[in-house]
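Help wanted!
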Amino acid sequence: MSLVFYLLAALTVAGGLAAMLLKNTVHCALALTVAFAGLALLYLDLDAQFAGFAQLLVYVGAVAILVVFAILLTKGSETPKDGVFSHTWLAGLAVAAAVFAVLAWSILQSVSRLPQAAKAPTVTVQQIGVALISRYVLPLEIVAVLLTVALIGAVIVAMHEKEGGAQ
Amino acid sequence: MTPLAGYLLVAALLFSIGLAGALTRRNAILVLIGIELMLNAANLNLIAFWRYGPHPEALTGMMFAIFSIAVAAAEAAVGLGLVISIHRHAHTTDLNLMNRMKG
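Answered by r_m:
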């Protein structure tokens, strides 16, 4: 366990915590961006350069901007006066704590059987590209169709309906 | 503690933070943010298992994570589009006030 890992893990978890705890929604979106960037750095630390840069492009570049747009379009940056948490927050927190307890318990139970430090794999972008158009070509095409349908669908759902138009 | 266990613990913690946020926040956008955090925690698991698994040259975990990132991006676009549409209809993103199936 290196110092880099601890720093990146602390950054990511702090970003995630801030995204869920801050009152102002815009601040939450900024904290979320920090968490996404921390995750991208963790991927780089794991020698998964392609996934790390894809994470930077997709999450830090696109999803964070989408979230900020949605917040501004819905006037979501106004903090409600009666608190930002639902009145059943205690039950939600208990469920999340129970889930974490189970996950952490199962990980710590299996520590002795987890593989030790392995040699860093050398994966080139060429290998990833060849794999994408040979072995993974069907998932790639399905994801392409899914992205097209989802983005067109998102635009249609969010599109302003004219008065007396299609209802 | 092995490095893999460290990454798995970070992913579990991030997943729980996202779950807690999705269950307790009242703003619909922040619930979506919580779901995004959970998806990212799962991706971290996939990459960590790929890195420390027996056959990293097979690229299985990495491909899984890349496809997962693409699907999560589509999910975020549709989810935020729905939130904007609901806001136009109900003039709120507070989930406590969205208690009717028909506008």
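OP: Thanks! One thing I noticed: The mean pLDDT of chain A is 88.
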